[in-house]
Amino acid sequence: QVGAALPVDVLTYEEKTLSAILRVISSGLVKLWSALTLLGFYQNRRCAFRVLQTSPFLLALSGNSRELVL
Amino acid sequence: VSFLIPECGLLPEVLKSTIADVGEYYLVRNLSVHELVAHEFIDAFVKKGSCYALTHNTKIDQDNTAALLPNGKLILSVDKDTYEELGLQGHPSRYSGKKVMRYIITIDLTDSSFHPDSKKYNRVLWALKEKKPLEFDFLMAWYNTGAEGSTLMSYFSKNQIQALKPKVTFSTLKDLQCPVLQSNELQGKPDESCSTEELFEWLGAVLNQVSLDNKSSSFLSTYCCPQPNTMVEKAFLCTITGFIIPEKIIQLLEQLCCYFVEPKLAYWLTLTVHGFADSPVSWRENEHGFHKGGENLYNFVIFRNLDYWLQMAVGTNDDCPP
């Protein structure tokens, strides 16, 4: 840990869906979520992050009923 | 619902047929809730076998939601305005806070005082039919205990009913690092076996395709497979997605236990079941809410000697599972 920075793990990244799974210590969730929400530019290109699912359990991320496509 | 069998390349026939037998579920669009309270419906489905229904595409923290439990209870989770307009007796949501914004109404359809001429029945019917009609898209399933009579498909033929089959995906994972487990060592033993939490997280990693071998120089992720682990040449992963009823999951569980009847290389296998994030109840009839996440899931780890671990997980707005 360096200064006030938070260690974050990028567990997966899928280029096709442009989605990733990040891991952070639970006390850092709010900081990370806020940082992602407020990140509007990267290297002069506009971008936006949408949080699809959060859980303290990695296993819970493998099923998301809100994304159920019938 | 997912299950993972290490050291398995091909699924045994009996498991294949159990999966094929998981059965259909139905999507009924624009169904009024008062139709679920109608005595023809109750006599045809609720009292004969187990009938399950859940509103589709409704968020438990925002919208009105309804669910029919197999024990005959109809649960309505409604916002304050709907509750006041509906006029039925309920209680505030347990996850309300100071200003109550959500109420839960429970109607026992199989109660003896709920017969067609009772005051209770007439009031409920009036509230749902005339005072504040509620209409939703419902996911439904019915476990028929062999009784003759109509099916959901024929009963709701005048509504827009669609029969759906759960989606099944199979994959064989190659060269997978699997934790070593001992069924009686829940906390794990250093250098001998892994703990239940380590297994739970590892399983999450496998099902989400997280890479398990991270070099110490990798700056992307610090996750690695718990020690001690063994390299398994192949593992079979199957995922079934849909509105799956407990009776079918029990059949699947029984067949998975039978997997170990013949000698197998695997020491254990897992079965994971996820509940719907927007269901109004989880674990018996405990109220379920969606705070930052609506997880309610359980995981079985079945060992060769038929010992098992059952891990249950819930989110913030939930009661502890029994």
From TrEMBL, chain A:
Pfam families per UniProt: RNase_P_Rpp14
RNA-binding among keywords: no
Any Gene Ontology CC annotation: multimeric ribonuclease P complex
Superkingdom of this protein's organism: Eukaryota
Gene Ontology MF, one: ribonuclease P RNA binding
Transmembrane region(s): 20-42
Record's signal peptide: none
GO annotation, biological process: tRNA 5'-leader removal
Presence of the UniProt keyword Transmembrane helix in the record: yes
Keyword annotations from UniProtKB, A to Z: Membrane, Transmembrane, Transmembrane helix, tRNA processing
Family: Belongs to the eukaryotic/archaeal RNase P protein component 2 family.
Annotated PANTHER family: RIBONUCLEASE P PROTEIN SUBUNIT P14 (PTHR15441)
Protein name, as recorded: Ribonuclease P protein subunit p14
Organism: Pterocles gutturalis (yellow-throated sandgrouse)
The organism's taxonomic lineage, starting at the top: Eukaryota, Metazoa, Chordata, Craniata, Vertebrata
From TrEMBL, chain B:
Gene Ontology annotations for the cellular component aspect, listed alphabetically: multimeric ribonuclease P complex; ribonuclease MRP complex
GO-annotated molecular function: ribonuclease MRP activity; ribonuclease P activity
Database matches in InterPro entries: RNase_P_Rpp40
Pfam families: Ribonuc_P_40
BP terms from Gene Ontology: endonucleolytic cleavage in ITS1 to separate SSU-rRNA from 5.8S rRNA and LSU-rRNA from tricistronic rRNA transcript (SSU-rRNA, 5.8S rRNA, LSU-rRNA); tRNA 5'-leader removal
Domain of life where this protein originates: Eukaryota
Protein name: Ribonuclease P protein subunit p40
Phylogenetic lineage: Eukaryota, Metazoa, Chordata, Craniata, Vertebrata
